[in-house]
Amino acid sequence: DQQVKQNSPSLSVQEGRISILNCDYTNSMFDYFLWYKKYPAEGPTFLISISSIKDKNEDGRFTVFLNKSAKHLSLHIVPSQPGDSAVYFCAAGLQGGSEKLVFGKGTKLTVNP
Amino acid sequence: DAGVIQSPRHEVTEMGQEVTLRCKPISGHDYLFWYRQTMMRGLELLIYFNNNVPIDDSGMPEDRFSAKMPNASFSTLKIQPSEPRDSAVYFCASSLGLALIYNEQFFGPGTRLTVL
């Protein structure tokens, strides 16, 4: 049973345009959400996070939106750059860490020059 | 700091053989995590340690898998006997603490395991 779902295995976007990666979760107890980025042959690296008390968190070109009622979050990358091409993992857990972090299967983003 | 170190980076073995994956966490990190990445299940937590003590091993798929952390700077994940369905990328990660809001998990580069 996948508690965190990324339904799009891949996404292709033109350089300079917006990339939108989506994530859905089923466990209403989750109160902290993260996005990790993974390049080939490397481990995932933390990108951005959001607490359930917020509905938006922005860091440079990256913005994460949280819709608690829909149990949905999205990562927006504007403008997209070829260096953003990677696999993006959505993850969810509890702020206090009392439950393990649950990851989605990932979405492979390709940004074309 | 060199980051989380894993070895080997690639491992090819035959079914039935024992496989040992190794991890050196970032110095000073109290938590160590073992994850497995597959196409079917994505990135899933197998087990994690706090101060060298296993805390949650509910993700370990079966008794063929075992993990140890004999000291703060070394952990192993062993599969015995290995099976083709164990083929995956295994990641080790470490963090200072467990609370997500304060503690980032730093991942190693992973070990790509292929069981023939």
Give a written overview of the molecule:
- The complex is a heterodimer of chains A (113) and B (116).
- With 113 residues, chain A is mainly beta.
- In chain A, 0% of the residues lie in helices and 53% in strands.
- Chain A contains no helices and eleven strands.
- In chain A, the strands form two sheets. In chain A, strands 2, 4, 5, 9, 10 and 11 form a six-stranded mixed sheet that branches. Chain A has a five-stranded antiparallel sheet with strand order 1-3-8-7-6, with no helix packed on it.
- The model of chain A has no long low-confidence stretch (mean pLDDT 94).
- Chain B is mainly beta and 116 residues long.
- Chain B is globular.
- Classes of the chains: A mainly beta (113), B mainly beta (116).
- Chains A and B meet through strand 4, strand 5 and strand 10 of A and strand 5 and strand 10 of B.
Which SSEs are present, and which pair or pack?
The complex is a heterodimer of chains A (113) and B (116).
Chain A: E1 4-5, E2 10-14, E3 19-25, E4 32-38, E5 45-51, E6 56-59, E7 62-67, E8 72-77, E9 86-93, E10 102-103, E11 107-112
Parallel strand pairs in A: 2-11
Antiparallel strand pairs in A: 1-3, 3-8, 4-5, 4-9, 6-7, 7-8, 9-10, 9-11
Chain B: E1 5-7, E2 10-13, E3 19-24, E4 31-38, E5 42-50, E6 53-56, E7 65-71, E8 74-79, E9 88-95, E10 106-107, E11 111-115
Parallel strand pairs in B: 2-11
Antiparallel strand pairs in B: 1-3, 3-8, 4-5, 4-9, 5-6, 7-8, 9-10, 9-11
